[in-house]
Amino acid sequence: MKTNESRIEKINEVDLNNGNFTAYWMQSAQRFNYNHAFNYAVSRANYLNQPLLIFFLVDKNYPEAKYGQFEFMFAGLKELKQQAEKLNLNFHIFEYNSLDLISDILRDASILVSEKVYLKNLRRWKNNAAELLEIPFYTVETNLICPVEEVSDKEEYAAYTIRKKINKIKDQYLNDLAILELKNKREIKLTKEINNKIIKNLDNYLKNIEFEDKRSFKKFFAGGYKAAEKKLNDFIENKLQDYDEKRNLPHLDYQSDLSPYLHFGQISPLQAALAAINSPEDEAGFIEELLVRRELSYNFIYYNENYDKGLKEILPDWAYTTLKEHASDQRNFQYSYQEFDNYNTHDKYWNAAQKELKLTGKMHNYMRMYWGKKILEWVDDPEEAYRIALKLNNEYALDGRDANSYAGVSWCFGKHDRAWKERKIFGKVRYMNSNGLERKFDMDKYLEKVKNLN
Ligand SMILES: Cc1cc2nc3c(=O)[nH]c(=O)nc-3n(C[C@H](O)[C@H](O)[C@H](O)COP(=O)(O)OP(=O)(O)OC[C@H]3O[C@@H](n4cnc5c(N)ncnc54)[C@H](O)[C@@H]3O)c2cc1C
């Protein structure tokens, strides 16, 4: 069986040296549970009979990150710190300023383990570190159920093309994963200079970062593994049975709400999938989203390095051509970024969706599709509409800046979809309108739900 071996990759050419600890750079899997990378680091430390240094680097200039997203992430990190203390693990959080910091932290290390990452900026960060380091650097794939290269060696066209590939291999990867016990728990002494770069108090640190907007989403989404597990358990016990029927109803909350936690790696998709599979309910609809659709997004950003560049680079020819052909069609309504941002359009449903996003950090899935389609309809240049949708999504969504953000927004412009009947502005790209919302859903209840948010 291939399973976990195929998750591991050595990303530099350096041989093992005789350092005195093993290191794990925690980055996009901010958890100990169901974390193949952490487990691999522990197994290497045990093999070498070394203690383990776990470190996390906070980059306060991380692209598009806002107060609410830091607050959510820090809640998870604080919980991890406590968990590490209980497990007697060396776990430190540093303020990142340059690659030299990584070299300094690892001066006496023998080997470095981290997670495989997919977004360009994260890949660049890892590759630059790999070039600089003089110890072996391994990455382990733990944020996808099936390793991206095992599923396919190319960018897939749509869900139907990737689904059969995933289905062929998924059973090999749906394995339970317990936390491994670290044998050598010796404290790792850091130099005074390195010690000074540790962030001792995340709350104080957050207070001292300047943000234009200090919007908090804490009331709606508490960050961290415990909160994620609570959401998962609640979903499995109370919602999974009705997921297929009710997940698209905007006035109800029959989704798992796991996307912010999955984005920060505070919970593993493997744990969520196994919980659904091991429950008495039919899990197929949920697995379709969590495994097929989510991993299609990762396939997209992994194999298309222009995933954030613009429509020409990401859309299939038919979609790009049809949008171009209809780019000069008359728009009945046009709005600027600010008007969208301030939910100031003529459409009460669109405004409610944008308000929901800004207040809670998440928009209902069905409204997300409608929201994106309308931005395409109300901006006179599809490229500009794409940029506006992506910026609003990434600016406010707790699950933004994710593979799913790029795939979700570009889906509104025809990515991973098929051609439909040709019409104004959209050409052959799938269209949505408010009559459809009213026909299918109780939209007054959705408006009421959003009105009561504060
Ligand atoms: C315009 C637009 C923008 C989007 N932006 C994001 C984003 O920034 N981040 C994000 O995670 N998702 C995004 N999506 C996809 C989807 O809307 C969300 O993943 C989903 O609403 C998250 O809520 P949930 O966790 O309660 O979903 P659930 O229905 O409970 O699904 C469980 C998990 O499956 C995955 N999933 C569900 N629907 C999709 C989908 N359509 N495509 C890919 N994976 C899916 C997610 O990881 C989700 O957490 C976007 C979709 C659109 C149309």
Q: How widely separated are the two ends?
A: 51 Å
Question: Mind describing the biggest β-sheet?
Answer: 6 strands, mixed
Following the backbone from N to C, one meets helices and strands in this order, namely: EEHEHEHEHEHHHHHHHHHHHHHHHHHH
Q: What strand line-up does the widest sheet have?
A: 1-6-5-2-3-4
Low-confidence stretches: none
The bound ligands are: flavin-adenine dinucleotide
State the fourth-level CATH superfamily of the largest domain. Answer: DNA Cyclobutane Dipyrimidine Photolyase, subunit A, domain 3
What is the strand tally? 6
CATH fold name of the largest domain: DNA Cyclobutane Dipyrimidine Photolyase, subunit A, domain 3
Give the rounded overall mean pLDDT.
96
- Radius of gyration from the CA trace? 23 Å
Number of domains: 3
Q: What percentage of residues falls in helices of 4 or more residues?
A: 40-55%
Tell me the overall shape: globular
Please work out how many helical segments DSSP would assign. Answer: 22
- The CATH class of the largest domain, by name, is Mainly Alpha
Helix-strand makeup class: alpha/beta
What's the architecture of the largest domain, going by CATH?
Orthogonal Bundle
What is the strand content?
5-15%
